[in-house]
Amino acid sequence: MAATAHLDTFVRDNLPPASQQPVFRFDLPELQYPQRLNAGSLLDRAVAMGEQRTAILYGGETWSYGQLRATANRIAHVLADDPGFRPGARVLLHGANTPWTVAAWFGIVKAGGVVVATMPLLRSGELAKVVAKAQISHALVDHAFAEAVEGARLQTGRLAKVWWYGRGGDLEAATADKPADFANLETASDDPVLIAFTSGTTGVPKGCVHFHRDVLAMVDTFSRHILKPEPDEIFCGTPPFAFTFGLGGLVIFPVAAGAAMAFPDKPGFDGLCEAVARHKVTTLFTAPTGYRALLKSCDTGVLKSLRKCVSAGEALPAATAEAWRQATGIRIIDGIGSTEMIHIFISASGADIRPGATGKAVPGFTAEIHDEQGRALERGQTGRLAVRGPTGCRYLADARQTDYVKDGWNMTGDVYRLDQDGYFWFVSRADDMIVSSGYNIGAPEVENALLKHPAVAEAAVIGQPDPERGQICKAFVVLKPEAEPSEALKAELQAFVKATIAPYKYPRAIEFRADLPKTQTGKLQRFRLREPA
Ligand code: 3UK
Predict the structure, then answer these.
(1) Ligand 1: which of 336, 416, 429 to mutate, judged by most atoms within 8 Å of the beta carbon?
(2) Tell me, what CATH number does 495's domain have?
(3) Residue 265: CB partners within 8 Å, gap ≥ 6?
(4) Residue 152, CA distances (Å) to 90, 92, 132, 205 in order
(5) Which of 90, 202, 267, 377 has most Cβ atoms within 10 angstroms of its Cβ?
(6) Which residue's CA is the closest to the ligand 1 atom numbered 26?
(7) How far is the centre of ligand 1, averaged over its atoms, from the C-alpha of 137 (Å)?
(8) Residue nearest to ligand 1 atom 21, measured at CA
(9) Which residues of 330-369 are buried (b: 16+ CB within 10 A; e: fewer)?
(10) Is the beta carbon of 312 within 6 A of some atom in ligand 1?
């Protein structure tokens, strides 16, 4: 192993001990990585295919690959020249999916920083947890999200150095006189490059550490073997870059192929439809809800430019896949991935797709179904999904490492059935995480937000099946004696949650109850609320 290039070794020092790490396998020729590797070199390779080639389409803007690299290199200089920055330092990246956010991602990586990208909609309290956990000193922040970051800065006393971009922020000024060339820091292939935070079932999010080589590994597994992108493709989609589904599908895969990235300039699925139409998108990444929304409100004529569509985040119902095929002639590539594994590890494309099944283990990965004792089950059986390959789970300083990794296998928390032909069929999530429109929502987090309202005595949140979103957040609320149940109060509680935590986590359904089912030790029994009344 090559020596680390990090001078700030906080992340390396807080990796799980070797005994708790998953087994890593590099069983394909394309997974043999050099000892020195900086994932930022993916951008340099794309530029080598032609500086003038289109990298990014955004509203009326077009960025060439040469321009994208020059901006990324200038940002790398800004960081490297900061007296408080040392390679290995965590850099918060907080912004929407825009050209500057992409440039900033590569700038941080080239300088040897560890990217901590966060969901644009997070509130200051949620950001503060991430900033404290990852001990973040530096930040590159889209002006549009300034308020939450200022709040997190006050709450944590960290984020000593923040550069703002967009709307005349100081990052543009700081980059103006920097050279357009930058010698990428010669990181070890197993130096950490990013920490992706999951929204966990408890209050403290889990930080998944990934190495420079892991960014290459998602290209050399799912993208190379399933997606097979061509340089003339135009990628687009909805997942934020902070979600590794979005980072891979909207940035890393297109850059690795020298293809173009198109970003909607308006949020939501209307923005997606508009971007597909305007930029003649060929390659789409979104969750099943996104496909249903496009079928509802986007003219099928607009979808004619599409060639490849990828769905992940939650199970793709066969009905959605079929409706999409009827409308567009395209079979959606479903794939299960996770923040811990960085990207997709079970999938299928083209004629290999079986509607309703997720697919087979992606080349480079091995997947099995295990029983409660960790024994592999025969084909035809249902059990816990276990996976290993070139990537895997490394939580930053977290006791929950041993929940995800057992005997060297990554246990995703999903229940799957393996059929006789090696296809994996999603059954359910083993825990009570709510997955709504592809976003994970931890029930206790929503409960805690509700409990902050003066009228609320007790709250329990479950995922209720929903044809549009997979699941929706449903809250059962016990009111304080002085409060009166009413429709107006339901709306008030919903608005209250939206103002307390990220708005997408709010309970779309609320039911008032006189009491909640509890065990004798006082623990809430959520499963009893899922039973039909
Ligand atoms: C569920 C799916 C059935 C499953 C992700 C692609 O979703 C991603 O990461 P998360 O950490 O959640 C992981 C969990 O989500 N899931 C995801 N995809 C599917 N269930 N079918 C699917 N196709 O419970 C999994 O354990 O938020 C997806 C790439 C990168 C990602 N981070």
Answers:
(1) 336
(2) 3.30.300.30
(3) 58, 59, 271, 275
(4) 15, 11, 9, 15
(5) 90
(6) 412
(7) 30
(8) 315
(9) ebbbbbbbbbbbbbbbbbbbeeebbebbbbbbbbbbebbb
(10) yes
Q: Is the CB of 358 under 6 A from ligand 1?
A: yes
DSSP string, 239-261: S-TTSHHHIIIIIIHHHHHT-EE
- 524 occurs within a structural domain: yes
Pocket flag, ligand 1, residue 334 (CB < 6 Å)? yes
Per-position pLDDT tens, the chain of length 533: 689 999 999 999 999 999 999 999 999 999 999 999 999 999 999 999 999 999 999 999 999 999 999 999 999 999 999 999 999 999 999 999 999 999 999 999 999 999 999 999 899 999 999 999 999 999 999 999 999 999 999 999 999 999 999 987 899 999 999 999 999 999 999 999 999 998 654 567 899 999 999 999 999 999 999 999 999 999 999 999 999 999 999 999 999 999 999 999 998 899 999 999 999 999 999 988 889 889 988 999 999 999 999 999 888 878 889 999 999 999 999 999 999 999 999 999 999 999 889 999 999 999 999 998 999 999 999 889 999 999 999 999 999 999 999 999 999 998 899 999 999 998 777 766 788 888 878 777 788 889 889 998 888 999 999 998 989 999 999 998 899 999 999 999 999 999 999 999 999 999 999 988 865 445 567 778 887 65
The DSSP output letter for 329 is S
Q: Is the CB of 440 under 6 A from ligand 1?
A: yes
Distance from the alpha carbon of residue 229 to the mean position of ligand 1, in angstroms? 21
The neighbour count for residue 296, using CB atoms within 10 Å, is: 10
| Ligand 1 within 6 A of CB of 310 | no
Location of structure tokens 């950001």: 127
Counted domains in the chain:
1
Q: Are 207 and 134 in contact (CB under 8 A)?
A: yes
Ligand 1 lined by 335 (C-beta under 6 Å): yes
**Domain extent for 461:** 433-530
Within a domain: residue 465?
Answer: yes
Give a yes or no: residue 526 inside a domain.
yes
pTM to 2 decimal places: 0.87
